[in-house]
Amino acid sequence: MANSDAIPSHVHVALLPSSGVGHLLPFLRLAASLIRHRCSVTLITTHPIVSSAESQLLSTFLSVFPQVTEKKFTLIAIDPTSANTTDPFFLQWETIRRSAHLLSPLLSSSSPPLSFIVTDVTLMSSVISVTENICLPNYTLFTASARMLSLVSCFPSIPSSIPKASLPPSLLDTESFLTKDLSENGKCVKRSDGVLINTFEELEKETLEMLSTKGLPTVFPLGPLLPLEFEGLRHWSGLRTKGRALSFMSASGSKIVDKEEKGADLDEILGHQVMNKVKNNDGFVVNQWVDQRRILSHKAVGGFMSHCGWNSVIEAAWHGIPVLGWPQHGDQMINGEVMEAAGWGLCMKTWGWGLNNHLVKGEEIGDKIKELMENQMVRTKAAIISEAAQKSSESVGSCHNMVKLFQSFKKN
């Protein structure tokens, strides 16, 4: 392993993820990277867990990495009506925050003593005071793009580099849960000892350089944080492999797409007519988390229609797959703009946000998929960004920045 001699011995890192698979996965991938760098890792899991997908991921991860210590953190029950949200994942964020004062004995009793903790950005506003009181260095893991971090670092102000239209409606509502959450946590990120982010310099070089002038602690681009072998369900066998003619469509976060009720029927969710058309064209639909790494690496796949969650954007970059972005909520429009600016895809800003009443006809979607997959310039850019992503995972990229992280901890 490159530069391993530069890493201090006996480094013990605690990881505190938030809720939602999109937040959990970067922590598990970071944990695997820390283990490769010969660190001891403690994973703090919050209970009860919101979704079966998270529970399954955690269980599998801990069985694959038995050297990771799990510390269960039982949360205080709160009155949901006091949280200004009905979203189950936002409710969990709020529950974790209101329970954060109970973390102190859990962190102080770790053996060997913790070197530092990495906290999800959505929890920083309540956890930072706890770690300051016990003199434990606290690093933020930011689970979106550096471009999104440029917004969070100054929110509720909006930097001139980000159009107001790139923000979801919920962030334009000053009373919404997401607006208040982003504002509080953005301020507290500046009190952390550093910001870890799943990006790489070749993808967001200008933004990363700009962030270094904004009064933030040091930003460490550790990406791409690579998917682990066990992630997702394997429903992607038997594809034809002559040429790159298939498009992969993925969405998450929608209460329609992510329906988890027992007995949920795909015909009910998507409609019988849609399901028949998919099946008649040798396609299929899965309403569970899949092994996206295996899908994107399959040589039959020539395009990826994505909501532009940051994990998906980074995975598409790694595999060199052109992206047709249809952002649905949160940071996804901003992430899609990063992808589009780098030239390896299209971000459909005119199709509106996911759960509004704007109708996009199937013919228009089909035309855009065809345009994406026939665009040779986009394919060339995708290949270039893939090469850059893979080089970044070597010693000149994320490993080098991991060493810089350890050196900053040693100075602290």
TrEMBL record:
Keyword presence, Transferase: yes
Pfam families associated with the record: UDPGT
Keywords recorded for this protein, A-Z: Glycosyltransferase, Transferase
PROSITE patterns in alphabetical order: UDPGT (PS00375)
GO molecular-function term, one example from the UniProt record: UDP-glucosyltransferase activity
Domain of life: Eukaryota
Residues in coiled coil: none
The EC number(s) this enzyme carries: 2.4.1.-
UniProt cross-references to PANTHER family, sorted A to Z: GLYCOSYLTRANSFERASE (PTHR48048), UDP-GLYCOSYLTRANSFERASE 708D1-LIKE (PTHR48048:SF76)
Family note: Belongs to the UDP-glycosyltransferase family.
Stated name of the protein: Glycosyltransferase
Organism whose genome encodes this protein: Hibiscus syriacus (Rose of Sharon)
